[in-house]
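Let's sit down with a protein and look at its sequence and fold side by side. Once you have written the record down, we can walk along the chain together.
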Amino acid sequence: MPFLDFSIDLHCHPNYKTFARAHTDNGKAPGAQSDSINNRSSLWYYDPPKLGDKLLNYFLSITKFRQNNLTAALYGRLLVMAVGLGSVEKFFFKNKLGSGKISDIANDFVSEFGEPRINAIQGMKDYWADFKREIKFMEQQESQPMKIDGYWYTYRLVKNFTELQQAMAANEIVQAGTRRDLPLNLALIPAVEGLHILNCGLENPCTPAEVKANAEALKKMPNAPWFVTFSHHFYNELCGHARSLRKQIGKLTNQEEGINSGFTTLGRSVLDILLRKTGGRRIFIDVKHMSAVARKEFYALRKSKYNSDFPIIISHGVCNGLPTLGATVSQFPEIGNTFINPVEDVMGGDGNFKDHNLINFFDDEIIEMVKSDGILGLQLDERRIASDETISRVKHSLARNKIMHYRSELMWKQVQYIAELLDANGLYAWGHIAIGSDYDGLVDPLNAFWTAEQYDDLASFLERHAYNYFKDHPERIKNGFNKVTPDLVVQNIFRDNAWNFFKRWF
């Protein structure tokens, strides 16, 4: 059963819920991964959504199932994943509900982390120690064969493109998967979401020397991350973050400290450590979750201080439809206006009205990313991919194929927007877009594309949209080098662009 074709995801979390459950129900020490695929603390634990789960997600945007686990991934032929490691920030669970029993029940209902893990996060005093436990958790069952549906599989933490190539080449052996000593491989690339893991961003001010020492140690880890997001949901004393939590969870949590600020002095020192080519692996920077101000600062530093010798990575993001920071009108309003949410009439911690568009990316950032030979993984979160008004206008149906058609069009509009933006600027339109789902990052997935198991379905429907686009609107793409076939567009997005990016930079 060789896999001659597969998909790649630049950002997902098969680890979040699994590591959380390793604190409670596998009969081992807290943080140990189970060797049974039927245990919730196994990365292989299969938990597809039931009808009630789907309805809960549809009406309340709550995800009571695992969007990404290794079994669902192999069913969807998702064989290469950049895995976002890192402690969930304590202020996600230490919120306006308090930290008592009622809070634990409510937080567990939303996250399915289990009360022991939620309590551990609420009382967190050392993110760095917690992160090291998570790395150990990922390493524990690496290369251990698991039998699923009569075939043998394993996962490998790969450190560079050579190891990635070897893992995928092994899947092409005719007998791969039929013997325990010849399993089919899933390749996991360690990444980090949020540098609070260096032990900063807690209630009390961090110790700069400790944070910098942890950054040095991070580079020397056997499975050091290939790239990291500098920020996540809350202020970490290194770099300002973009507002990311909306609706009910946004009301329960407080993101206002440090919101939309730039780099701190300590943050710049950590940046130097990670980007230094000595002292261990050079760690690239993923600009997702940075404030727009910090991103602008980072792009300038990349050119002036680091000689533009590394790519711009957006592991899981989408366009906001606006040309640049400070702009309020789209240059491509037909599609761009469908991305823009109105600014709230509520003042934020930065002294401005709350703007939920700043976490998404401006036109000039997309162009800069392409010119840097970088990559953008499209996030499969309905709350990011289009405005609330646009989503409310999506057609409804009881037929699954029609639901898939209507919902996948939300993603296609992002692809189309990027393509037309790049084409208008004389750039190749189809070479720097990939998938960065953020599945199991507690996101609201595109309805009917609930988990990684539906990746093939999503690819098929995107190809349908691409076909209709080229057939019905040939005039929208101006440059001949961007007039390609629908199957090439989809193959590039789901595999080839990410693979070529790995080949260049990993």
Remarks:
- The CA atoms of residues 227 and 284 lie 4 Å apart.
- The beta strands are 7-12, 78-85, 146-148, 151-157, 184-193, 227-229, 284-286, 313-317, 375-378, 433-435.
